[in-house]
Records
---
Amino acid sequence: MQTELFDVIIVGGGPAGSSAALYTSRAAQKTLVIDKDPHAGALGMAHSIANYPGVPDALTGMELLGLMKRQAVSFGAIYRNDKVTAIDPDGPEKTVFTVSGNAFRAKTLILATGAMGKSSEIPGEKKLVGKGVSYCATCDAAFYRGRAVAVYGKNREAVEEALVLSRFASTVMLLCPGGKLAVPEEEAELLHRAENVEIRYHSRVLSVNGEMGVESLSLEGAVDPLAVEGFFIYLSGSAPVLDFIGGRLEISSCGCLKVDREFMTSSPGVFAAGDMLCKEIKQAVIVAGEGCQAALYAGKYLRGTTIHRADYH
Ligand SMILES: Cc1cc2nc3c(=O)[nH]c(=O)nc-3n(C[C@H](O)[C@H](O)[C@H](O)COP(=O)(O)OP(=O)(O)OC[C@H]3O[C@@H](n4cnc5c(N)ncnc54)[C@H](O)[C@@H]3O)c2cc1C
């Protein structure tokens, strides 16, 4: 049993967790960040980030994460590579259990394990994530200016993202797995009006093909592969990573962790931030802002005050 008592343990070292670590460590709170693998997080998978404020030259998600970590470490945050398997969130001292058999204790926890796409398991998908396979047109559409792309899905997200892509790509092929889009008629109408969008119903993608990037899709019943450079998948959405919670914290009706307006979960002293919370827009800048807020509210909890202290001295 590890006996050192931290002020804050942050579970997850993505943009939400690392931003929280920057604020807690800079406030002189003894901070431990436990992250199982930065490559496994959403930002770690992103091949090019060009919309993070203050970072004008596009860089990979891993490079951006490296900068965030460096900044937090410069103020004293400790990063540890380990997978959290369970937490005990009750009482004044919380415990975090990891797969390596350790148990870490802290006065507060900030959970920031993100959300992961439910695997659709198309052959080739995993290999080409970040190399043409994407789950976020808002993030990546600008990289496909003048190129042919395909969107796979029939839900509202697929339709909205196809419209986003139509402003950049030369052609957008919307591959609908069924005979009808699952959106109101007026939304489908927007797609019909976009000149460079074509909808192919009853489409089933058998594989995503390419070595260094997406080159084509093999479709059921089609002789020739469909040549595209980008493939955006919206089959099953993403789900918050909550497997280590073990029913110890309240979950909202939409399946994400429940927090109050101060980012505190149902257990006092346990905060959460980032894509593991319900949100319509998943972007690094948004979750970094949430990490900051969770950290400042955790500081307020640690001081036992009701007064929030700003961090701009
Ligand atoms: C392919 C792709 C491209 C994107 N492009 C952009 C973009 O261009 N611009 C933009 O702003 N946003 C982009 N996004 C969205 C953005 O990356 C996410 O909104 C953001 O990363 C969410 O941050 P987070 O810290 O909540 O979670 P994550 O970034 O997912 O980080 C969670 C971390 O927690 C760790 N973790 C999970 N479970 C455990 C556990 N049990 N124990 C320990 N550690 C654990 C993970 O390994 C990971 O490091 C993109 C997303 C994807 C998937």
Note: The mean pLDDT is 92.
---
Amino acid sequence: MIRTAIIGYGRNGSTMHAGPLERYQNDFEVAAVCDIDPAAKEKAKARFSCPVYDDYHKMLEEIRPDFTVIVTRSHQHAQMAIDSLMAGSDVLVTKPWATNARDAERMIAARQVTGKKLLPWLPARFGTDLLKLREIVERGDIGRVFEIRRSVTTFGLRCDWQTESRYGGGYLLNWGPHLIDQPLQLVKSPVTRVYGNLRQIVNPGDGEDNLRVICHTGDGVTVVSEFLIAAGPYPAWVIQGDRGTILVEGDTARIFRAELPERVGAEEYRTNTVITESAEKITGQIYGDEYEIYPHIAKVLRDEEAYFVPLEEALRLSRILDAARLSSRLGQEVWL
Ligand SMILES: NC(=O)c1ccc[n+]([C@@H]2O[C@H](COP(=O)([O-])OP(=O)(O)OC[C@H]3O[C@@H](n4cnc5c(N)ncnc54)[C@H](O)[C@@H]3O)[C@@H](O)[C@H]2O)c1
């Protein structure tokens, strides 16, 4: 039994994490929940019949959990993770695991000092769209990939803490971990330079609600990640290879394959390329299914599997997010 504590029993903590912890009772026991909101504490107590706290230091000291899941506001994650590691607990920290790379490094240092496990939560790596696209790309259907565009568009506004930078709000930290990390999973070489354009269009608060981040990799792949507010639907993915294109709209991946001739003859001014089209369905959860991920976490905590997000990759992502913010301020590309 992995005696587990949850810090932050809000919208996400009480669903995405409490759900699998409740279901997998052969692996996890919810030993305590901490939240400063009395109503959240009441709900957790009624659901898990466990002690509830509003001071996480006290909870860590009294409960001594094996494993702590941190799902508070984004600016709180890094310090809470460090304190939990120092209290002798393994830690899962939701996205964004830190609001900047320096805090991410502090967490990694705490992990090294304590020897405890630190698990950054990037569930979109289990996203079914990503898995399908990886299958198509690895099959070689579109040849060598040189450009990927990942877009989310919406007219949906927010008015909560996610619009305020003092709480770690703004859509770079909120959506960046999904929209930048996912396409980079299809690319082998690391990112070398980053361009960011962060703007606030319609949301209240001071956080950006519209973002475009362009990452260039060492081997010449361009990855465009964008969250566009007040915008109608774009394809969620466009992947270009030197032999074709994949376009994802709704639950369908359309694959366009180009039958290029060997080479253009000297007498021809252009090729007569034949394009064939096919389509494949994408089913399941595109941002990852927590009920699929938690059995893996139980195995990781028992040293039976390696965690699906290596720490150096999570740190690299934090550096990209920092670079995107700096680039947007400077109005120019930033080298990593
Ligand atoms: N797919 C995903 O991975 C995903 C989805 C949604 C949210 N998130 C992340 O989860 C985090 C929480 O988002 P949310 O929408 O649930 O926010 P929320 O405001 O609903 O929940 C945060 C909770 O933390 C509690 N809290 C605040 N200070 C505390 C303290 N000092 N000690 C204990 N509890 C405290 C609040 O009372 C609240 O209940 C965010 O960082 C967000 O980015 C991840």
Note: The radius of gyration is 22 Å.
---
Amino acid sequence: MADRYLNFTGTAPGRFLTRRLGLPQPSALRRWTPEKPSLEGELLHLTAGDSLHGSSSVRQLLTRTNLTLATDASTSRPVAVVLDATGISDTPGLAQVHAALHPVVRSVAENGRVVVLGAPVSPSDHHQAAAQQALEGFVRSLGKELGRGRTATLVRVRSAGAAESTLRFLLSPRSAYVSGQVIEVGEASEPEQPPVDWDRPLAGRTALVTGAARGIGEAVASVLARDGARVVVLDVPSAQGDLVRVADRIGGTALPLDITADDAGERIASALAPGGLDILVHNAGITRDRKLANMAADRWDPVLDVNLTSVLRTTDALLKSGTLNRGGRVVATASIAGIAGNVGQTNYAASKAGIIGLVRSLAPGALAEYGVTVNAVAPGFIETKMTAAVPLFIREAGRRMNSLAQGGLPVDVAETTAWLAAGASGGVNGQVIRVCGQSLLGS
Ligand SMILES: NC(=O)c1ccc[n+]([C@@H]2O[C@H](COP(=O)([O-])OP(=O)(O)OC[C@H]3O[C@@H](n4cnc5c(N)ncnc54)[C@H](O)[C@@H]3O)[C@@H](O)[C@H]2O)c1
């Protein structure tokens, strides 16, 4: 469903009128296209205090993005600002964060990025913990202030070398609908060779995407294929026609299968033998909304089964059978409803909150035992058939109640999934990444 308000505010009279009326001012987001795969412009690299990783190594890392490093802060109009605040270890140091960003924030270009690099919050040094946690409130507020399609993100970096794929993602049009997030990057899980071709970072990898006959799952399958993966798309047998169409379009393979089947794990394993699986995307999901008082078990059980129990069952089966190769990636789909709750969605929100519990608990062990990372994407309001069915006023509220004042597109969730799925993202584990334009819900 087209966002007519966004189209209207993109015209001169629309902009004039909505400004005068004090209405939201969404900017058309700049997303990845084959013609324009990168943000164009200069990147301003600033440091508050002493960098924990050494300014020159962070600078080197930034030169590997597709942006040109600005040489003079006072004259440039950067498309991205990266502030290295990893060395801020007490609250007086926070003044340097203000001093660095205050003069330049106004000049950040439309659809630009502000990325603050922080350090892991110390469990034993409460002064460092206070200062580093302060960055979270700072970045989340900045995300709400920036406007004009600009985003702000905090990346807590343990090892600068492991942060390259994350910085490349954040400093590109692929992260258009990700703002106000805090992302932790640990040590790389395995000595990864950087992919030869960053335009096809999934080359040579095999992916399975559930619920891929339409909507977000279809977009995920397309983006993973674009990035070089061989993709197997799975959906219920009744959606086989659409599924085959998706598979044909992306040069993949269709696997019609109900993911709640007891033997789904085994059937996936045999479909993927002998090479196994590198990327498992749990995207299939359903809603059966009613207030709890009106919700019979026939609305509760299938939602929990599709959205959560089958995810647990198939993940366990594919890990234990060795179908998920070392260096593998599991990306599950949560929702901001699982963080904030929602009227009429006790079943759905329970299932999506359960995904967050699963991801946080399984991630360290799966990495240690199987060399597999486990993360989640938590979409906000995404323009799909699911949200097109929402009544008009609730839909309008859902679209506007975020810092970017618009709904996301399935491709936004897909781009985030592709970043988490990359071999080079081994340092990102146990994270729940909201793709919600910094929704006010659950923030
Ligand atoms: N659209 C949004 O705004 C939004 C927001 C938050 C989270 N999500 C989540 O994102 C995911 C995709 O959402 P969407 O909007 O694309 O939904 P959608 O309804 O358009 O697509 C879901 C797909 O999952 C498939 N599916 C359902 N049950 C299945 C089963 N038992 N086995 C195999 N496949 C099954 C469906 O056939 C369908 O093709 C879901 O997990 C959803 O909960 C969506």
Note: The CA atoms of residues 326 and 371 lie 5 Å apart.
---
Amino acid sequence: MPTRDVLGARLAFLLDWLYPPRCRHCRERIAQDESYFCHLCLQQIRLVSHPLCTTCGRPFLGTSGADHLCGACLGRAPRFHQARAWACYPSEEGEGQPLREVVQRFKYGRKISLGKPLGRLMARGCEEFLSAHPADMVIPVPLHPKRLRWRGFNQAVILGREVGRSWKVPMDPLILLRSRETPPQTQLAEEERRMNMRGAFSVNPAKSVAGKTVWLVDDVYTSGATVNECSRALLKAGAKEVYVLTLARAV
Ligand SMILES: [Zn+2]
Ligand SMILES: [Zn+2]
């Protein structure tokens, strides 16, 4: 009688045959599902690599030199301890930007099934950073209830859940609350973004983060204003350290 492993392998083979793994962007067939993108699409995704800002994780141009603080972090130190992202997020729409297109499909096209591969890519791709800063809990950046109702899901929760599963760290989406609705940030300058976000988050009084090290998860790091305000609330409630993890980082 075949063992469970053999049955599992046969089932995987059958599923592969019925639903061959495909690139999440161009739908090209791929050999291994765990890569999620084909070679061509993957080549077009610029991963975050050293040298980068030791605090906010912004990658510097060029591939040589040591990590150091960027001008923005030197001028005003963020509230969180450090931030890292898996890949760079191009600021403009355009051809050949697989990650941007896939993230847009995930968020605005409500293609929730993309959350799992994207969450795993960030959990795996930021291994160096995450293993250096073990955490007690994963906390996703919350959406305002009104936007949550409109979108139907919070992308940060889905990504955070995968990160938590991959690293066996519990995720709690009910700790951080969005206490105030904020207008969309896209048209705002950096200083305006900061003001826009002030006091937008609080910690659920029924929960405790005292003494905890937190991985704060979001999809895209743009100016850092959102994760900065979340960090302020978490640290004010007694969190020990906040490390920010995002799938992508605007460059
Ligand atoms: Zn592809
Ligand atoms: Zn920086």
Note: The chain has two domains: 1-44, 78-250.
